[in-house]
Amino acid sequence: MTGNDLLLGIDIGTSSSKGVLVDSAGTILARASRPHETSTPHPGWVEHDPESVWWADFLEITRELAGAAGGRQIAGLGVSGIGPVLLPADGAGKPLRPAILYGVDTRATEEIAELTEELGAEAILEHGGTPLSSQAVGPKVRWLARHEPEIYQRTELMLMASSYLVHRLTGEYVLDHHSASQCDPMYDLRERAWAPDWAARVAPGLELPRLAWPSEVVGTVTAAAAAETGLPQGLPVTAGTVDAWAESASVGVAEPGERMVMYGTTMFLINVLTDPRPHPGLWTTCGALPDTYSLAAGMATSGAVTDWLRRLLSGDFAELVAEAGEVPAGSKGLLLLPYFAGERTPLFDPDARGIIAGLTLEHGRGELYRAALEGIAYGVRHNLEAMSSAGGAARRLVAVGGGTQGGLWTQIVSDVVGAPQDVPGETVGACFGDAILAAMAIGMDVDVRRWNPVSTTVRPDPGRVEAYDEYYRRYRELYPATAGIAHFLAGQQHAADTAR
């Protein structure tokens, strides 16, 4: 690679796809994005069409960014996407149905219970590092075989968003170790390999992809893909990975004890480890880089709740943030449980529900909006404490994502968790991490902290830390005290959905 060569990173997200063109010094030369929709054909089902969403977005973004290269050579391509997902495809890589998305798709509830009983909860946790939940791919494979047997019988490839792009570009059937480690219970976390016995029980007759690390080149762009995309034939392509792990690479969260909090539609957290530390309330996975592991946590909603409030209160974000900023810590006696779509870690309760406690006629928009930010921050603290209880060290916390803009949300989180957060200068996200992983894959010596230095550090206010400690204790009491009522109400909602 010469100093004039460029890198391309493209990420397929839940609601949009993004890409960047980066030079060899880490400077972003061009950006592109495309919004898209998810499909919810039945209650609990969440899907993407890979052709009209993943591939169409990839083509448009690639052509736009390649056009900005100005004739300079693109030397490497990295991709990432939502995950873990299940896309069954035929031997040529043609999708056989829409992709079944990650933990937000809850169709495989019976298969989760069945496999947990069949294999044993303790054995699954020890073997794969994670309890089976809606996040796991294995139960969704069994659901496919049971409910759409004609599709399963035709399935020859098991793809995710990133591996679908890799296959389409290079013809290679490959999956990165991190994504594979979320295919519970088919992957052996300690061996860093497929578990043949369990894989055969979950996915009989299905050939699993070869494994590689996200920072490895796994193939090059074929002549056919070059003609379709405008990319140069022979361009090296990385294995790809799940978007959150690409995002962690973009901000240099790579050393043991480093943690990332990703502020977005959902909240996602990663804690880097040197060895697996299974915990019943978290996901333990392989990391983005070789010889690393991760503790991971994900809240089912975060920015989705603030956006719901924005629409409900007929305001815009700037107004609501300004009003919330005038409200003292504790929102004048309000507590919000942000479980508006159930909760993932550390509760693993799809029937948890949102609660606003303490409402009076004196509360207004500012109090409600601040209570939402605080409730999400309490959820972050709950997950960080679970990581610590699992043995994950906490020596640095990095904040990323669109929710870091404006400063109020990150300040509330630092005050609630009692720890500073580094905010990098570039929070464009996973696509920048894809470019960084591509640079590593083709042999560049990448200093991520030089490419993406910290722009500010949010430090906790000691007075608010003390106030929030009491509110956090009450937050932790509110869920178990109301879970039975929430489950009853969730059952009524499920019955209403079924009757439609």
Structure description:
The protein has 2 domains: 6-244, ATPase, nucleotide binding domain (Nucleotidyltransferase, domain 5), CATH 3.30.420; 252-426 and 461-500, 2-Layer Sandwich (Nucleotidyltransferase, domain 5), CATH 3.30.420.40. It has 500 residues and is α+β, with helices and mostly antiparallel strands. The mean pLDDT is 95.
Count of β-strands: 24
> From the 3D coordinates, which CATH architecture of the largest domain would you assign?
2-Layer Sandwich
Q: Quick check: average pLDDT?
A: 95
| Class derived from helix and strand content | alpha+beta
Strand sequence of the main sheet, in spatial order?
Answer: 3-2-1-5-15
CATH topology of the largest domain: Nucleotidyltransferase, domain 5
- Shape summary: globular
Strand content: 15-25%
Low-confidence stretches: none
In the CATH scheme, the class of the largest domain would be: Alpha Beta
Give the biggest beta sheet: 5 strands, mixed
CATH superfamily of the largest domain: ATPase, nucleotide binding domain
- Portion in helices: 25-40%
Topology:
Elements: E1 6-12, E2 16-23, E3 28-35, E4 47-48, H1 50-67, E5 74-81, E6 87-89, E7 99-100, H2 109-119, H3 121-128, H4 138-147, H5 149-154, E8 157-159, H6 161-170, E9 174-176, H7 177-180, E10 187-188, E11 193-194, H8 196-202, E12 210-212, E13 217-220, H9 223-229, E14 236-238, E15 241-242, H10 243-250, E16 258-262, E17 267-273, E18 283-286, E19 293-299, H11 303-312, H12 317-325, E20 335-337, E21 355-357, H13 365-389, E22 396-400, H14 408-417, E23 421-424, H15 430-441, H16 448-451, E24 454-458, H17 462-499
Parallel strand pairs: 1-5, 5-15, 9-12, 16-22
Antiparallel strand pairs: 1-2, 2-3, 4-7, 6-8, 10-11, 13-14, 16-17, 17-19, 18-19, 20-21, 23-24
